[in-house]
Amino acid sequence: MKKGAKKVYISMFKKSKVLIILLLLIFISISIPSISYGNSAEPPSILIIVPDAPDDLEISIGDGNAFTKAGKTDKIIETYYTFYSRELEKAADYTFNISTGDIDYEITLEKPLRMYSNIYTLDLEAQTLIPGRLLSRSILLVSMRIVSTIIIEAVVFMIFGFREQRSWSTFLIINLLTQGALNIWINGFFPISSYLIFSLIFAEIIVFIVETLLFLRLIREHSKLRRILYVFVANLLSLIAGGYIITILPI
Q1: Which of 26, 17, 20, 14 is nearest to 180 (CA)?
Q2: Residues 6 or more apart from 28 whose CB is under 8 A from it?
Q3: 204-214: buried (b, 16+ CB within 10 Å) or exposed (e) per residue?
């Protein structure tokens, strides 16, 4: 192997080590759970996700005159139906009535469940409640958020005058890794989370620091100041867009 090629491989290996270490720091930092009790709203005891829910779909618990309808929150591509612990206290069992159009059936869950944050997905056609969130749903939502973020940051990257192929390749790799880590982390949150925006701000600060270090080290096009300004503007716009996206898209 020629000395020149050997030096290139050594340099690439060193840069890869730095990238791996920084990405590990992202995962460790954003995976640490933060718990807040002060003035926090009571989370739902049971949340039922219904993909493409009909407008007239109703879910209730109880029987006869003693029944409670679920609260309803519409999101793009799906709807949340929620029950709080105070609404379930009088329920003899967890028998849910699902009705829409000419369809009316019941599904019973076994007790005990956790006090809060029980998530189910309703399959209307199969008439079943599936524990948790569907993997296909998580993949779709994570991909949508990553793609939308990369498009925003790519426009900013172009506006800042980056044109070299190596710069764009590095940009794409860095953003796939950092935004992938960020959005997989977001996917772990409860679908109705009052304080997600504050966690998002904290995570974006970490992403900004990591991306600044990586862009300064791996991209040679333009001055260091321009690269830092790009990362700042791109992440600021991503934060604004991300804050809006989580209000309309499911989590």
Answers
A1: 26
A2: none
A3: bebbbbbbbeb
Amino acid at position 140, single letter:
L
| Residue 94 to residue 62: CA distance in whole angstroms | 8
Beta bridge partners of 106: 97
Residue matched to tokens 């503007």:
233
Query: Residue 128 in contact with residue 107, Cβ under 8 Å?
Result: yes
CB atoms within 10 A of CB 202: 13
Residue owning tokens 């998002």: 200
Those residues whose C-beta lies under 8 Å from the C-beta of residue 173, and which sit 6 or more positions away, are none
Q: Which two tokens stand for residue 131?
A: 């524990």
At position 174, the amino acid (one-letter code) is I
Alpha helices by DSSP H, listed for 69-195, are 85-88, 135-159, 165-187
* Residue 68 CB neighbour total at 10 angstroms: 16
Sheet holding 58-63, edge to edge: 66-69, 58-63, 94-100, 103-109
Tokens of 146: 């990553």
Token pair, residue 88, equals: 């379930």
C-alpha R_g of the chain: 23
Is the backbone peptide bond immediately before 112 cis, with ω within 30 degrees of 0?
Answer: yes
What is the chain's pLDDT, residue by residue, as a tens digit (251 residues)?
Answer: 455 544 544 454 455 555 555 555 555 444 444 444 444 556 678 999 999 999 999 999 876 667 888 999 998 889 999 988 877 777 777 889 999 988 899 998 876 576 678 899 999 989 999 999 999 999 999 999 999 999 999 999 999 999 999 999 999 999 999 999 999 999 888 888 767 888 888 889 999 999 999 999 999 999 999 999 999 999 999 999 988 888 888 88
